[in-house]
């Protein structure tokens, strides 16, 4: 009970003289809270992409949230049709989302002019596609392929820089060969050099090992990892390849156009890699439970929740039994 009779009277601050004035309090309240993902290198906030074909709407991304830090190397996995390529097309500036926020290295992808888009695609991001033929021009050598984007961006197409990149990716010996004179894995490693030609901040790869055998896949993934570690470039790889998804620090699972799970890998004190899977909680508290968990317990329309001291219990919708305790 307040016995002072001075209800809501400003309270003097300990040893600080006067209490804050109304205008100070207003200024404090108005001070911007850090926005969602303000410091992320890649930010997707409630991203929506709806395709309309012949009157039919397909919602490929339905409010996807994703934050990626500068210098991260992450894999994106998900069933066919879950929205992985749609997401990569948005991040690469090839496609424009229907709604939401998409920002890469400070560039707002929904507010770009045609000129901004061209500059963004030439200088901020580099991409590697699954089809080796889509990455390289067949009548140019590896070195010429790497120098081409430098020329197109108006940069100096230095032979030495092209050769350094080919060397970093372990394909210096292919510099004078045309794509038809290289294996699929060599072509993909040259494609990474092409993607890195203008020193982008981010590289995006859509199934870069999809057409390769396991030896070549391993070499291509090692090259991507080297680019990430040595050049500090943020790398996002869409993949079905367990060899890739099980070796990155973070794997993001997409289901029905939303991020649904994340697997984080870290080394234990004895050097063993420990992988832990997490469900993703979105900004309004929605949680997607893995389908194999819900079907194992016949969870369908609703579940019973109980808040415990350090966790939340989730039970099927049926009367409580002693076993639930
Ligand atoms: N241009 C388009 N027009 C209409 N629908 C599209 C288009 N592109 C993709 N879709 C639809 O959007 C959804 C997501 O497709 P997307 O290609 O992003 O999936 P994905 O996860 O990359 O699949 P996959 O692993 O098979 O490549 C699918 O239902 C797909 O049919």
From TrEMBL:
GO CC annotation terms, alphabetical: plasma membrane
Q: Identify the keywords attached in UniProt to this record, alphabetized.
A: ATP-binding, Nucleotide-binding, Transport
Which is one Pfam family of this protein? ABC_tran
Q: Does the keyword rRNA-binding apply?
A: no
Supply the Gene3D superfamilies for this chain. Answer: P-loop containing nucleotide triphosphate hydrolases
Q: Where is the ABC transporter domain?
A: 42-281
Q: Where is this region: Disordered?
A: 1-20
For this protein, what is any one GO molecular function term? ATP hydrolysis activity
Q: What is this protein's record name?
A: ABC transporter ATP-binding protein
């Amino acid at each position: 009970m307040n016995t002072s009779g001075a209800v809501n009277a400003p309270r003097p601050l300990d040893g600080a003289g006067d209490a804050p004035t109304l205008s100070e309090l207003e200024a404090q309240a108005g001070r911007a809270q850090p926005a969602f993902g303000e410091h992320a290198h890649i930010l997707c906030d409630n991203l929506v992409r709806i395709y309309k074909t012949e009157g039919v709407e397909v919602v490929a991304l339905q409010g996807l949230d994703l934050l990626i830090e500068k210098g991260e190397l992450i894999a994106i996995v998900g069933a066919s049709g879950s929205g992985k390529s749609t997401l990569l097309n948005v991040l690469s500036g090839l496609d424009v989302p229907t709604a939401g926020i998409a920002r890469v290295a400070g560039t707002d992808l929904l507010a770009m002019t045609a000129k901004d888009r061209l500059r963004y695609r030439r200088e901020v991001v580099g991409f590697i596609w699954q089809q080796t033929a889509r990455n390289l021009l067949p009548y140019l050598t590896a070195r010429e392929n790497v120098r081409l984007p430098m020329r197109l961006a108006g940069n100096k197409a230095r032979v030495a820089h092209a050769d350094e990149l080919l060397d970093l990716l372990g394909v210096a010996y292919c510099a004078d060969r045309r794509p038809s004179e290289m294996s699929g894995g060599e072509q993909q490693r040259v494609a990474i050099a092409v993607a890195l030609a203008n020193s982008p901040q981010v590289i995006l790869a859509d199934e870069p090992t999809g057409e390769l055998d396991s030896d070549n896949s391993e070499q291509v993934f090692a090259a991507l990892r080297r680019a990430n570690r040595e050049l500090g470039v943020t790398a996002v790889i869409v993949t079905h390849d367990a060899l890739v998804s099980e070796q990155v620090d973070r794997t993001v699972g997409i289901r029905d156009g939303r991020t649904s799970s994340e697997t984080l890998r870290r080394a234990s004190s004895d050097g063993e890699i420990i992988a832990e899977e997490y469900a993703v909680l979105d900004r309004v508290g929605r949680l997607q439970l893995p389908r194999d968990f819900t079907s194992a317990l016949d969870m369908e329309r609703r579940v019973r929740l109980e808040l415990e001291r350090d966790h939340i219990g989730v039970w099927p919708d049926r009367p409580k039994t002693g076993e639930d305790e």
